[in-house]
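quick one, 152 residues, struct below
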Amino acid sequence: MASHLRWLVVAAVGVAILVALLVWQAGRDGRSTGDSPQIFGEEGVPVVSPELAVSDALVRGTVFPEYTDWSCVFECREADGCHADVQLTVTYVSGEDELDLKIGGRLDAAMGETMRLGRAQRPPTSVDDVIKVTLEVASTHSPDGARPTPRI
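---
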């Protein structure tokens, strides 16, 4: 009887190890294990930018239980560089709804350099598709000019 019990324990431990390996491998492959955040990314998103020459954008992010983390990456294509305070409007689809997200920031890059703007969005929202990015210039500044004092 003790021999049967020993084999039963060995079999149970083996099954537990196999399940742990499968869950670990699923996490490494990027498959959801139930509580993983949703990761999204769209390359070549058109950027509508009448005032500043930039490339199409890479829009990516992660939907966490408390917020959605957004990142918008694009390249400066202005001969004199991109030196401006801007507001991006990311138009995206969540379920059946078309929504807009506003991201403000300062660009300070030479021609050909990569720029990134991002923010956290609360409450979180799922992202099924990113349609476009609209870039509006609020003001321009000289690359060698004085920088504003940051607020603390």
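Strands lie at 38-45, 47-48, 57-63, 68-75, 82-94, 97-109, 114-121, 129-140.
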